[in-house]
Amino acid sequence: MRNQLINFIIMAFVIFLIVKSMNKLATLGKHSEVAVTEEQSTKVCPYCCSEISINATSCPNCTSEL
Question: Where are the chain's structural domains?
Answer without folding.
Answer: 2-53
